[in-house]
Every structure is written in structure tokens, then in C-alpha cells.
Predict the 3D structure of the following.
Amino acid sequence: MTIKIADPLGLLVAQNGVSDAPAVEAAAAAAKSLTSPQQAASIGEPVPIVFCRQVSGNGGVFVSPRATEARYENDEDTNELTVSLMLVLSEGSLPTLPIKDVFKGACRQGTWAQTYDRRAGTWTPGNHIGTTTLSGATVWDCPFYCGTSGRYDNMTTLSYVNTFDDADTRWNQQVHAFVRNGMQVTRILDDTLGPSNNFIDLALYLIRQSSQIAETLIDTTSMTAAANFTNTNSFFYNGEFTESTNLQDWLTTTGDYFLLRLIQSKGKYSFKPRLPVNTDHTIKTDKIDFAFTFTEEHLLPDGFEIEYIPLPDRQNIAYDMMFRQQPDADIGFARSTQVFFDGLADSGPYEQHDLSSFCTYEDHAVKVAAYKLARRRHVTHTLRITVRPGTYSNTLEIGDICRVRLRRETAVGNPEFHDFMYEIERIEKTTGGACVFTLTHFPIDNQQRSVVARIVDAAAGAGESLNVGRSDFTCDENDSDDDTALANQGVDAPSFDSPSLASTTAELDVLDIEDIQPIEPEDNPDDDLEETQDLDLISGTYDPGDELDISTNDFSCDGQVQWFRIDKDTGEKTVIKTVTEPIDGNYSLSITTADIDHYIRAEGRCKDPSTASGFGAPRLLGETSVVPTNTRVYSNTVQTSSDPDDTSTHLSYQGPAEIRISPTKCISCTGSTKNCSESNARPTYQITNYYRTQNTCQVSSHSGFAFTDKVAAESCNVSDNWKATAIDIPTLVSYELYRTDSC
Amino acid sequence: MSNRSQSQFLRIFDTSTTYVRWQSYYVNQTVTLNSNSWSFMPFSVNGITESAAAGGQDLEIQIPATNSVVSYVNSAINLSRFVEVQIYEFNSIGAQDAPQSSQTLIAEFTGQIQSISGTFTRLELRLGSALAPVGAQVPPRKYNSYLIGAPLRI
């Protein structure tokens, strides 16, 4: 029994983004502590990806890299502590940072170096804290496990060195870097290697690096359109990717914040804008064209299911959108903006969405909120229709806009219509041919313009930058407008105690598939019960009076042979004889006249004490052709008399006959070779006279067909007329005619 | 009035080579479609689903477990080859010995074989992509001993 459970429509409210309240509301991701203790990297943690690109003074990301190596050393006289840290900034190659963009705590301090694909800095890690002559000196409590070096393949690394006075408590503060331009990728929009702030570039990088989706299964055309959409509408990604997460989940949830939906169409993955767009990729706010109109003509019986958005998902709320204000010359910070419909939820309730880990544009956050609010307010229902298949089955895609116009007979002569625009959320093409479209209401105004698109397009933030709140600039030792690039200084691998590849990997030999295929035949022991079947073990002729034999060489087990006669017409099977002891090495049977017009069959059974009869299952040992009534053999008869009626020198016979080319092989009426036991192998040839007249074989004046073999035919030099009526017998050396009548 | 029928075509390929083309409608015939020959193989395909929601977009194919089929699909899953399925609809009152020029492509799906199961005589292939709905895959690189040695411990 198969139980089919349909997807509940209720799920769609969450699936289609009408309601997607976060499960947990917490502090903004960008609200980092500046003076917390320095963090160290751990084996197994994700290598961070800094993905950003500053455009027109906006963008970039403030990161807090983790240390992998450290060196601590104090001065014997002054007890000054020199701290050196080796930090991993990001996976991939990043443009060199300027000195103004690196921080110790909240201050621009220290000596820095940046390099790629190797260890930054030339100092050796270790704890070299020693005694000091300074009276009352602080005992530096520095880590003793300072790390070994590594290979840092395809990573951008930083070296930080700074010296602290005795008793300075800031020695262990976290270091930070403001990265204006992050990891370099080949940008989809201009096919150029460089930093990017396009979400699609990051998505493609993650998809490819994680090998989750094959290149063939990526819809590059749609991806490019999506990249243009985010770029044109200033939905930029400026963030650090550090949290280990599921790729599909990340693509879906983060894509929502770029007003994109991840879709799989025809097996290929792509992103599609959640709003209608113009050809220049701006949000389309004029009349919407719909791809198809479904009417009663397309709908199948019971093919209409509707569900309205439940009350909790339709209440007016305000969205608290968190994003990051990223000043060009200072440390960025998280901030928020509240978005609501005027007069509807001015004081809440609130729902919080955190975009601060990647969003540095207030308008971006506001438009996302506007989209969510507009759908919450104006999308009223979802619909599922089941329609017959058609061309549209393969042309409509997820996100396409379609119209459903169905006539509803509510009163005679006054029909009403269910007439709405919808956005396609799901397409199911069943094996029965029917197509199930799951649709979300697509609200339009009286000019057929998308209500949601108009609200989103008009939404904009206040556009005011908040004061960063910093009141003390005295801790900066490096100039805040110093654009000097960090030194490219480092040590190529192997550096210090960096492990070799051999010491950290275990490579297994790859075997060819052929190497693991079984190449020997089965080696099961011999078993008499598993002897191969042989259907032609009977020897001897089977005219009445003849004897048939089954040799013990052919049937070797201790058992019995049963002889049967089978009626050629009815198939009735009768036991003739059961032979339990071979005589002279044979299980024999004598043919009698009772066997005429029957097949003779032999079956053998080996002894098997486990059965009631004491014998195992019978197996066929052989079967003869029909035992003939009477036989007379004419061998290669070639007549010489010119008189067809001269029976002394002429084959004067007329009647049915078999033509055998061996004891078991016959020639059928079409001239092909058959087993004589087959029904159509015993043709009813009319054997007529033929004679030689003046060295020419001719058909006699008697009715019927003549036959001959090719050897005879050639020797007789038969005429064309004779050939035309002769049956073409395949090449044979000799033939015998078995009379089957009683003449 | 018309009678509608559906024919299904299946192709196993990679970026450079097509390894096999099968169709399941024209019994014991090799037919030509889009200038390519498609030999008969009695497979069947379940429905195709397209969605923006996670999961549920996989496709299942039932196919006889002949030696050649086992060889093709086993190679396909081993070498991450692609399987393309196309479903055409047409009026079955018309010619039945070859694809009709007026037939309509109503569904198509391209994916990789995610799993193979079945019996001695029949295999069930599940097509999709390797995009797993569970498990952490990104960021793709993690710190390991080769990359960072024995790191600092604070």
C-alpha cells in the first residue's frame, strides 16, 4: 500500500517568505568588543573569508583575526614586553592593507606586515619572558604554548609586533583590521579578478569551493541576472564569513536578505529576484506582464486549493533592521533602523533582523524590511492549482508571474471571477501528466503595478550617519590617514617547525576498478544434484523393435531412469518403464508398435533420502521424435527412367513425408532446419515423381510438388520450370525419406 | 479530441561525452530525436518538482538492472556524470513509430545520481545535486595541522 501525503499548504507561509520571523533575536553580529583578549585559532575552525569591496567610500569590513603563533619577550632592564602575533586575516589573496587600517584594541599601534601564502613576519614563536632588574616589575603572564609555524597555503596573513611598558594591561587586547577590499575572486559581472561585494560572487565561490553543485548544474545566465539585480539596487555584501554552516541554508537565508530566492529549475540552481525587474535590472514599478493565464480550460477536477494567510502573520509590526555603519576613517559599529507602515505599528510589536554582518547600506536594510512588510500587509493567500500539461509546463519557472482567472457561478446570469495575479512558488510535474502549481498571491494596484515592488522601490533610510562616539584619539601611535602599505614580509615554508605534508596526511593508493572485480570462476564443490541438464542423451533408433539407451556415463548418479511415451497430438504422458538398475551400462527401452505416433522421453532421478519417494527431482535426459508407423528409406534416389509410371526404375511414391538431414534435424516446409520434435518440422511434402528426359529433370504430370537436394539438382541439370516448383532444400550431402503412410 | 501520451528520454553525459541515450516509449526501437539516436530501455520517471524551498527537488528513475545499465549507472555515480531526463507530450493518435515533430517538451531535469538502490532485476536511481540540506559545508576550508601547525594556546 502506498500512502501519498501532499505538502501541506500551511508550510508555504514560511516557505514563500511571507512569514520568516527569526527564531532567536540577539545582539548584532557587528557589535564586537574592541578590547577583549586576543583570540587564538584552533584546529578545525573554519578559515575566515573576508569578502568585501569598498565603493564610493562605503563598504569594507572590520575583522578581528585570530592568532596562530606568538612571541613574548621582556626587556631585562625595563621589563617592557614585546608581543609578536602571527594572524590569519582571510582565505585567499587580499590587497595590502594601509597602516591606518590596523588596530590594537581601539588604537592604531604596532609594527605590521602582510603577506600571502606564507607565514608573515620573521620572528620565531616562543615565550622568552625572563627575569628583570626593574624593581617592583610586573610578572608578565604570557602563554607558554606559543605555537609552531604552518604552511598557510592560500591565506593572507598578518604579523603584528608591539611593545608595552611595564604593567601595561593592554598587551593582550585583540587586534583588528579594517579590510576595505577583501578576497579576490573572478567577478561574474566584469569577468575580472579582484575584490567583490556582490553576493552572487560569494555564493558561486562557496558553491565551487565546497564542490556541492557541479558547474553544469549552475544556471550562469540567471546568476548573472541576479548579480546585476543586487549590484544595480546597491545590495552589497561586505562581511567576514566565519561561522560554519550549511551551504543550502546559508544561500537561502542570506539570499532572502538580498531579495533573491534560490531556485532549482530543470535541475539547475540559480538565484532569481523576488521582485519584478526591468531590463536595466532596476525594480519594475510599472505595469506587470504576466507569463500565462490559467482558466477553467486548464484546471483539472478538484484542482483548486486556497489558503489564506493566518492572522499572526498578517498583524502589523515594525521591523528592527540592524546593519553596520562603516565610516571610512574609523571603526564601524552596528546600528539599527525601525521600519513600519505609517500609523500602523509605530510602537511595535517589533521583529528583529540582523544584517549587520554584511550590510553597510542603510537603504539595503530598509528595502529588505519594506519587502517583508509589504508582503505581510498585502499578500492575502496562497493557491495550489492542478492543471493539465501543456507548453507552459516547461516554460513557466519559479518566480514567474501568472494570472488565474476562474469563473464562479454564484447567480444565474451574474458570474463572478476569481481573478488574481500570482507568483509561482513551486511546480510539480506528475507522472500522470498533471502539473501542480503552488502560487503566492501577487498583489497589484489598479494599473496592474506590483504593490510590493512599488513599496520597496520607494523605501529609503534616513541617510544620516551617526556619530561613532569616540572621544579619545590619543592612543593612536600610527597616523589615522597614513596610507602606507604594510610591508610584505614573511617566511616561506618550511618555516620554523612547520609540519610537512607527509607528517599531516595519509594518502591511500587508488585501485583501478578492475583490480577489485572477481576474476576467478566460482569454486563451489561438485554436487550431483547440480549436474548440468542435457537433453540429448538418448542413443539408438526408434522404429518398432529398436532399442533406446541412456548410458551410465551420461547419467552417473545412483538412481533410476523412467521412460515415457507422449501422445503426439494430446501430449498425454504415460510411463512405459522404470529402470532402477542399468544393464551393461545402459538404462534401456525397447520400442514397440504401441509407441507409434508417440514421442519417447527419458527422465532420470538421483536417489535422495530426504524425500518421501527416496528420489530427487527428475531431470530430462532426452526425447525422440515421433515413432513412425512404418518407414522406408530412399537414399539419394536419382531415377534414370524417362517413364514416370515405370515403378521398377522410378520412385513412384506420393504422400506425406519427413525430410531429415540427421537423426534429430528435419527440414521444414519453408526449407529451414528444425529439430524434428518441433511441430512445424514435419512438413507434408507431396513427393511426386520426377524423371530424366533428355538429361533434363522434370516434374511429372502428377499433381503436387517435387523436391530434390541441390546435389541432385545440379547433377540433373534441372530446367527453370522444374526449379520454380521445387522446394529449395538447404545444402545437404544426403537425405532420407521416411514414409509415414502404410502403403 | 486527442489522446495524450508522454515519452521519456534519458541521457548520461559529462562535459565532453554522451555515454548513452535511452528512451522508454518506442518499444524495441531506436528512434531519432534532435539528430541523435535513442535506444529503447524500459525505464520510468516519477514526477519532477521545481521549488524555491529546500529539498524535494530530487527525481527518481526505475530502470531494469541489466549488466549494461548497471555498468552505465555505476560509472555515472562513480565519476559524477550527469543524467538528463526529458519528458515529451504528444497526440498518441498520430504516428507511434517515431517522435512526432509536434510533440511538446513538458519537463526536463538534469542532475547527478545521488543514490542507487533496488533489487536483482530493477534499480532505482535518485537524481539531484550534491547540495546537502544538512551538515556544514562552508566555509569550505578549515584550519588543519598542515596549515597552521600546532597553534598558539592562550
Notes: Strands of chain B lie at 4-13, 18-23, 31-33, 36-40, 44-45, 48-51, 59-64, 82-91, 104-118, 122-128. Chain B has one domain: 4-130. The domain at 4-130 of chain B is CATH 2.30.110 (Pnp Oxidase; Chain A).
